[in-house]
Amino acid sequence: MTIAQINGTGVRLRAFRADDADALAAGFDDPLSQRFLPQMPKPFTVTHAERYIAERVVSTFAEGGALYAIADPETDELLGGIGFDKVVPARRQAEVGYWVGPWARRRGVATAALRALSTHALSHGLERLELLTHWDNPVSQRVALGAGYLREGVRRGAEPGRAGGREDLIVFTRLATDSGDPLPRLLPDLPGGELTDGVVRLRPLGPGDTSFFAELLGQPDVIATSVPPVAPTPQRVQERCLRAEAHWLNGNRADLVIEDVATGLPTGDIGLYYDDPHTQQAMIGYSMLPAYRGKGFPTRAAQLLALWVFAETDVARLVAGAMPDNAGSQRVLEKAGFHKEAFLRSRLPGPDGTRSDDVQFVLLAEDLLAEGPRLDG
């Protein structure tokens, strides 16, 4: 079997060799690889690697797919693997996958390899490539976006989990007619990973925030102002934390933790919901733990977030809502520069089948620049 060598930027895709077995075993036995490749044996030994090279690689090519070693073009060191299978000839499509050993991560290896393989495959008979990632694998999602793959949707229960049950997978696709250029994002990363004014710090919500987030969302008044006003289950809280970065990468929401700079402790949350990019309107919402209320933290957080939104995204209108009897939340918005715009009758679902009114506030970029911060009082 002769395998065409594919050259990419800083990587070379070549055939697997028998002497790759040790590195292949180390790569597949890595905890991250085990998490996101649940079909692989655990532990993954050198014997498994030898069988993979002798049998799996050969059978994949025989079935119309391909499995390549990702190698350093200078040293020929094995860095990872990439390939495609599940080929549907009638549709000219296949599913692509990749892995990178822990010794080669954070060097752009996966993105370079994916670009090279995709360009090759889509110019040699295939017209559509699918790439599936777990919700809690934002690194792989960044690779997909960087290689010109468009997020297309979510495939429910697409993969059996290692511990039982089934897991949803996010679907990215690239067509032969796509340029392959990195896709622009509606919500970019925060500069330096955070926003701060020296008093409060905003950072992305993540998997390590489950306990704090459960405490925050379990506050009775936070539940009462949630939509719908129902306490989230522990599973739902964990899901919010695990999937937060995936939502950010998709551009539909950015969930942030409000921290007290003086103590480093989480005090509340603030979220940006970009559900209407066609009209360039987004919404913010926030909540605070009782011990940190009355300190001006949500006002500072709203201003920090608004400054970033108007400077780094195409959002033109930032809206927020508060219940008519929630004077504290309305004062936060007014101090942050928002203007009361409308009274919306029965806009939100309330408890026990009732409906609640909503007072809507709006902030434009020119409002924020003209008025500046209003943190006094």
In total, how many beta strands? 16
Could you give me the name of the CATH homologous superfamily of the largest domain?
Gcn5-related N-acetyltransferase (GNAT)
Distance between the termini: 76 Å
CATH fold field value of the largest domain = Aminopeptidase
Number of helices: 11
Which percent range fits the helix content?
25-40%
- Low-confidence spans: pLDDT under 50, at least 5 residues? none
What is the architecture of the largest domain at the second tier of CATH?
A: 3-Layer(aba) Sandwich
CATH C-level label of the largest domain: Alpha Beta
The biggest beta sheet reads: 8 strands, mixed
**Which of globular, elongated, flat, extended, rod-shaped describes the shape?**
elongated
Q: Can you write the helix and strand succession as a string?
A: EEHHHEEEHEHEEEEHHHEEEHEHEEH
Q: Please, what is the average pLDDT?
A: 95
Give the amount of beta strand, in percent: 25-35%
Strand order of the largest sheet: 1-2-3-4-5-6-8-7
Number of individual domains:
2
Radius of gyration of CA atoms, rounded to a whole number: 24 Å
Pfam families: Acetyltransf_3
Domain N-acetyltransferase: 11-176, 200-366
Protein name: GNAT family N-acetyltransferase
